[in-house]
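During the second year of the project, the team shifted from modelling isolated chains to modelling whole assemblies. The rationale, set out in the original proposal, was that interfaces cannot be judged from single-chain predictions alone. As a representative example for this report, we include one of the complexes processed in the last quarter. Its constituent sequences, exactly as entered into the pipeline, are reproduced here:
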Amino acid sequence: MDHKLSPELEDLRRTVEQFAHDVVAPKIGDFYERHEFPYEIVREMGRMGLFGLPFPEEYGGMGGDYLALGIALEELARVDSSVAITLEAGVSLGAMPIHLFGTEEQKRTWLPRLCAGEMLGAFGLTEPDGGSDAGATRTTARLDETTGEWVINGTKCFITNSGTDITGLVTVTAVTGRKPDGGPRISAIIVPSGTPGFTVAAPYSKVGWNASDTRELSFSDVRVPAANLLGEEGRGYAQFLRILDEGRIAIAALATGLAQGCVDESVAYAKERHAFGRPIGANQAVQFKIADMEMKAHTARLAWRDAASRLVAGEPFKKEAALAKLYSSTVAVDNARDATQIHGGYGFMNEYPVARMWRDSKILEIGEGTSEVQRMLIARELGLVS
Ligand SMILES: Cc1cc2nc3c(=O)[nH]c(=O)nc-3n(C[C@H](O)[C@H](O)[C@H](O)COP(=O)(O)OP(=O)(O)OC[C@H]3O[C@@H](n4cnc5c(N)ncnc54)[C@H](O)[C@@H]3O)c2cc1C
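Output from the structure prediction step:
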């Protein structure tokens, strides 16, 4: 692995860095305070091609890969995680399942608008009775042979991007039958927004990611055409494991960005804030804290880029993705706590970006597989079976 980004990726990094600094940073705090989705910023991200980064040009994508997506996510999250998670979920959970498992017709129907950021897609896996244990899915889909439609019933919770004005679809996992051993056959089905019986609840009141959209969804005899099945019937479980493996690299890049953003803010503050007649950054205790924060952000970056490089090269990456997600989310929480401490009382004021980073960091240890689930995966990859 080359430690340098290619000239194209470095250009992308600089472009997103500039956008985050010039467009996102000055505006996002107000959206966050109002718990409001920043449509204009997301539209601009769409115009820049960010939602199409890892998709082929023939479907409206930019022809890049997961490294490119990670670079963009890291730079956005250095400044704000709400817009970063909107991009992450739109690409990794909304569009990627259609790209990886969709029919040609499904790709042509959905991908161009998803890649342009004119439409957002969501992925509904988690249910009120279980997220980590996704095999325990209770939502059902029955094929009505007379009408040729899936009839879906159930509830999904905590679904990102599922209720914005530009949400076009949610791919849901549902039990579509039983295996000979009695276990569930899980399938993934595309449900367009506005389908009768598909209800989107009001946004949750969240601790963080307050300028992103998260909702509970309910399905009551929701009918969609049989052709909305995504991939093979009964293969939904294997499909979403693949989606989550990839998504972990994206979350790791996002977490690295948050960890780096904490360093950026802390260095600036430590130089300008004075106590006892000198900048607080002249104290070794503060310097060492920031040095450790930089070490953690740097190492997290190496971890997610390593996992992404393996994915792009077509090599196994499951363990590396779990390691990157576990490590980067841990250090994002560490750095957010330390950055807040360096800011003293101001770190507890929402007008300071580090306060937002502190609130946004915790979910990184929970979403797309908790830290415990990452440890389970790593242990399994090491051959340990419980
Ligand atoms: C803001 C937000 C956005 C989200 N977006 C989406 C989305 O777009 N789509 C989607 O499908 N989901 C989404 N989620 C759901 C998220 O992925 C789940 O919350 C997460 O996977 C954990 O599931 P759970 O909440 O059911 O916790 P549980 O699975 O109930 O876990 C509770 C605790 O028990 C631990 N635990 C469980 N099993 C074990 C075990 N075997 N060994 C040790 N510890 C264990 C867990 O690690 C955790 O600490 C989102 C969540 C949030 C908060």
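The chain has three domains: 7-120, 121-233, 238-381. Residues 238-381 form a domain with the Butyryl-CoA Dehydrogenase, subunit A; domain 3 fold (CATH 1.20.140.10).
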